[in-house]
Design a protein that fits this description.
The chain has 366 residues and is α/β, with parallel strands linked by helices. The longest helix is centred in the N-terminal third of the chain and has 32 residues.
């Protein structure tokens, strides 16, 4: 194998949603091929205590196990990874069953549904659904049907998570959010969405996503799922929206590109990225995927986004999201400002400023 590679630093420069140096080594082992993947695993194993693994890296263990088995690796360490895979397989089976019941109940109420995120990725893009851990499942309904969906869920025994002030979730509060969590006891947790993601919360933000959606089945229940292009964009947007650094998006995005292949319309992805004011994070994410060599990303898509000049609000939000201390008071205020801006459909700075006091009053009254 040659000389041992130096142990990687745990710190990596760049946007907060990009993986650290040690996580990049793990991703090479998890998603790579041949001796390079095996060597990356050995370096990662030597630099990491798997019993004290960060949660994001832990989520990759089922996929790491599958890849190492495919490459013919035999090692006692794989027993630990295998146990995580088996646990993931079992939990996902239970979630699919609970989700199918939810879809059936919403369908009986005449509500259209679209499944988002982990379930679609696990069933459509990963080699096996046991390789993609999920903490909950996500269901999108048309914005106008949000109240009816909440009523149908509550009738089925699902309860909305309490608001920060302990009060019940209500329609007035819903206007601040793109989704809300519901708890179903032993059935797990679900996120009900009336917007696909926080980057677009105006009334018609998801019209293009709905029009390009595809039929999808969970157990025996028919629903919809994002089309190939929008599934990739939504994966990247979700990584950017997270307040804490994540790494799972890299594996998800690689799996989407590998599974969907030529069905991804890169021109559409560029257009939708511009429309959702996500040029800077999506460009950074695609550049990272391209440089990693783990997924074929057309240079034309990155070039097209590089030629797009984001306005100053986009640039300011992107700089804010890369702060080393996102929970400081100034950054909390900045987060509320950009939250208000996106709720108002990426309004002009003047319009956002005029509406900001009303937004703060609504936010404080949650």
């Amino acid at each position: 194998m040659g000389s041992r590679e130096p142990e990687p630093s745990p710190v990596a420069p760049g946007p907060r949603f990009l993986p650290s140096a040690i996580q990049r080594v793990l991703l090479r082992a998890t998603l790579g091929d041949g001796s390079d993947a095996v060597q990356a695993w050995r370096v990662w194993r030597g630099a990491t205590d798997v019993e004290a693994l960060d949660p994001e890296s832990h989520r990759l263990l089922p996929l790491l196990y599958s890849n190492l088995r495919r490459l013919g690796v035999e090692d006692p360490a794989l027993v630990r990874y295998a146990s995580v895979y088996k646990h993931t397989w079992y939990r996902n089976r239970l979630m699919f069953r609970a989700l199918a019941a939810v879809l059936g109940r919403l369908g009986e109420a005449g509500i259209d549904t679209m499944v988002l995120k982990g379930v679609v990725l696990a069933l459509r893009c990963y080699p096996h659904f046991g390789l993609r851990p999920m903490n909950d499942f996500d269901v999108l309904v048309p914005t106008d049907h949000m109240e009816a969906a909440v009523s149908a869920l509550e009738a089925a025994g699902w309860r909305p998570a309490p608001l920060p002030n302990g009060r019940r979730f209500a329609h007035a509060t819903a206007s601040l959010y793109h989704s809300w969590g519901f708890r179903g006891g032993t059935r797990g947790e679900l996120d009900l969405h009336w917007h696909s993601s926080a980057d677009g919360c105006q009334r018609d933000a998801d019209r293009a996503f709905w029009s390009a959606s595809l039929p999808f089945t969970v157990e025996d229940q028919e629903t919809r799922a994002l089309g190939s292009t929008d599934l990739l964009l939504h994966t990247l947007a979700h990584a950017y929206a997270s307040h804490d650094p994540v790494v799972r998006w890299v594996a998800d995005a690689v799996m989407v590109v590998r599974a969907e292949g030529d069905r991804i319309d890169w021109d559409r992805l560029v257009d939708q990225t511009r429309a959702r004011h996500l040029v800077l994070p999506v460009r950074a994410a695609l550049a990272h995927l391209s440089e990693s060599g783990l997924a074929p990303i057309p240079s034309g898509a990155i070039d097209a986004l590089s030629l797009t000049r984001p306005d100053w609000m986009d640039r300011a939000e992107y700089a804010h999201r890369q702060s080393a201390d996102p929970y400081s008071l100034p950054n909390k205020l900045a987060r509320l400002w950009f939250w208000n801006w996106r709720l108002r459909g990426h309004a002009s700075p003047l319009s956002a400023a005029v509406g900001f006091p009303a937004f703060l009053r609504q936010y404080a009254a949650r």
